[in-house]
Design goal:
With 130 residues, the chain is of the alpha+beta class. The protein contains four helices and five strands; from the N terminus they run αββαβαββα. Strand 1 (28-34) and strand 2 (39-43) form a beta hairpin. The longest helix has 15 residues, at 2-16. It is globular and about 40 Å long. The model has no long low-confidence stretch (mean pLDDT 97). The structure holds tetrahydrodeoxyuridine. Tetrahydrodeoxyuridine binds next to helix 2.
Length: 130
Amino acid sequence: MRGKYSEIINAAWQAQRRAYAPYSHFAVGAALQTKEGKIFCGVNVENSAYGLSICAERSALFSAVSSGYREFSFLAVVSDSARPIRPCGACRQVLAEFDAELPIILVGSNGEVEITSLMELFPQPFSLTR
Ligand code: THU
């Protein structure tokens, strides 16, 4: 199972080192693979006005979309939490804009892997077109 996802998980760990988290001291890395196989990374970027901080998942998504990619095959999220962390509600809604069924790989600091999907974590997003 891990082999299939090792590249995207490694990319998320590399990115995590670039997190800017001087307030929470909780560094998160995300990697989003496009349907073409390209990987876009994101980190949490905090701000002294705390509410302006952005999560790693949205950073990765916005980076990919900014580069012209809108179709994705996987998202990986890593952090220093021993248990894998799941994307926050805001990120779930934002990810659902592009793929409400996105497969998601969550990895804890001890290597624990949880394979899930946006469909499972966030089955009923807001949508004008439902
Ligand atoms: N954070 C993420 O980047 N992704 C998550 O899935 C959960 C939380 C960030 C936001 C904040 O910078 C720090 O982790 C603590 O909440």
